[in-house]
C-alpha cells in the first residue's frame, strides 16, 4: 500500500494544466483523462459531465434570479413611494 506522500507524487501531474497548444484529453496507462476547468485538474469525467460545474452553474443561476427579484422589489417600492408622494402633493394642492 502506498503512503500518502507517494500517492500525492503519483497524482501531481493531474494538477498541471495543459499548455495552450496541448489537447485537453490525454491517455495515461489504459485510462483517458480530461482537463476539468471546474476541478482545475485532469479527471476521468468530461468537463460537461462535471457535477461541481453543474453545482456552480445552478448556484450562479439562483443568485442571479435572487438579484433580479430583489431589483424588481426595489423598483416596485420606489414606484409605490413616488405614487404616494404624488398623492400627498395632490391632496395638499386640493386644500
Oligomer: single chain
Give me the side-by-side strand order of the main sheet. 1-2-3
- Radius of gyration, in angstroms, nearest whole number: 28 Å
Q: Helical amount among residues, as a percent range?
A: 40-55%
Mean pLDDT across all residues, rounded?
81
Structural class: alpha+beta
Query: Strand fraction band?
Result: 5-15%
C-alpha end-to-end distance: 92 Å
Number of strands: 3
Shape: rod-shaped
What is the element string, with H for helices and E for strands? HEEEH
Précis, in short:
With 95 residues, this protein is of the alpha+beta class. The protein has 2 domains: 1-49, no CATH class; 50-95.
Walk me through this protein's architecture:
The protein has two domains: 1-49, no CATH class; 50-95. With 95 residues, it is an alpha+beta fold. The chain has two helices and three strands. The mean pLDDT is 81. It is rod-shaped, with a radius of gyration of 28 Å. It has a three-stranded antiparallel sheet, with no helix packed on it. The N and C termini lie far apart (92 Å). A hairpin with a 2-residue loop joins β1 and β2. The longest helix is centred in the last third of the chain and has 44 residues, at 51-94. The relative contact order is 0.07. Helix content is 55%, strand content 14%.
SSE blueprint and pairings:
Elements: H1 4-11, E1 25-28, E2 31-36, E3 41-43, H2 51-94
Antiparallel strand pairs: 1-2, 2-3
List keywords for this structure.
2 domains, 55% helix, three-stranded antiparallel β-sheet, 3 strands
Amino acid at each position: 500500500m502506498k503512503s500518502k506522500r507517494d500517492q500525492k507524487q503519483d497524482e501531481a501531474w493531474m494538477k498541471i494544466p495543459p499548455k495552450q497548444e496541448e489537447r485537453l484529453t490525454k491517455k495515461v496507462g489504459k485510462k483517458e483523462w480530461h482537463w476539468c476547468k471546474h476541478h482545475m485538474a485532469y479527471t476521468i469525467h468530461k468537463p460537461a459531465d462535471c457535477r461541481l460545474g453543474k453545482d456552480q452553474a445552478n448556484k450562479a443561476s439562483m443568485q442571479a434570479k435572487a438579484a433580479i427579484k430583489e431589483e424588481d422589489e426595489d423598483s416596485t417600492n420606489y414606484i409605490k413611494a413616488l405614487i404616494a408622494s404624488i398623492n400627498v402633493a395632490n391632496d395638499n394642492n386640493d386644500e
